[in-house]
UniProtKB/TrEMBL annotation:
Coiled coil: none annotated. PROSITE patterns: HTH_TETR_2. The lineage of its organism: Bacteria, Bacillati, Actinomycetota, Actinomycetes, Micromonosporales. The keyword Nuclease does not apply. Residues 38-57 bind DNA. Keywords: DNA-binding, Transcription, Transcription regulation. PANTHER family: HTH-TYPE TRANSCRIPTIONAL REGULATOR BETI, HTH-TYPE TRANSCRIPTIONAL REGULATOR RUTR. InterPro entries: Homeodomain-like_sf, HTH-type_TetR-like_transc_reg, HTH_TetR, Tet_transcr_reg_TetR-rel_C_sf. This is HTH tetR-type domain-containing protein. It comes from Paractinoplanes durhamensis. Residues 15-75 form the HTH tetR-type domain.
Length: 198
């Protein structure tokens, strides 16, 4: 009697495997949310066993944080390339909105997780609280000396951006994220950072 042929799983370099895991997890969380995420589904999507997946990420919470940190690093790198040395709040926000308009699945991922993480027991609760504060602090620094209330305006800009993105995600055929942001920016930045022309 012949032995069945064993099919070996494709071996990938550690960095490539981690990137695959992050990509599969990103897609699944965007579709189902963190609470609907199954480690078995992630493992299946990567051609791994669950123990093999845990070898790379440690835990489900560790996997979530790896996805979030990876996306933030990618977004920061891309934003830095897009804006160069500018310190114009209007131009930085416009570059961020343009980038987000090209990656609805990532924006959806963050919108779903941010809403879920409002509960204190969510593993990304502290991450999103710190991320929101860092965003507002960064905007406030850019606005200092340009407006009497940089902290208040920073909160309004962040809230406007988040709100427009949710409306766009819900109805992308009807809402052009970039067009709506540019119209809103003309209002919100009218006394702060006039458009650079063109």
């Amino acid at each position: 009697m012949t032995q069945p042929i064993r099919r070996e799983r494709a071996r990938l370099p550690a960095a490539e495997r981690r990137r695959q895991i992050i990509d599969v997890t990103t897609r699944l969380i965007a579709e189902r949310g963190f609470w609907g995420l199954s480690m078995q589904d992630v493992a299946d999507g990567c051609g791994l066993t669950v123990p093999g997946l845990l070898h790379h990420v440690g835990s489900k919470d560790g996997l979530l944080l790896a996805v979030l940190e990876h996306r933030d690093a990618e977004d920061l790198r891309s934003l830095n390339e897009a804006v160069g040395d500018t310190e114009s709040p209007r131009e930085i926000c416009a570059a961020l909105v343009r980038r987000n308009s090209w990656q609805p699945e990532i924006v959806r991922l963050f919108a779903v997780l941010e809403a879920e993480s409002l509960t204190p027991d969510h593993p990304a609760h502290d991450y999103f609280a710190a991320r929101q504060q860092n965003t507002i602090d960064g905007l406030s620094r850019l606005l200092k000396g340009r407006t009497p209330d940089p902290d208040g305006l920073a909160v309004k800009i962040a809230a406007l951006m988040d709100g427009l993105q949710v409306h766009w995600l819900r109805n992308p055929a009807e809402i052009d994220l970039v067009t709506q942001w540019m119209a809103a920016a003309d209002f919100i930045f009218r006394d702060v950072d006039p458009p650079s022309g063109g």
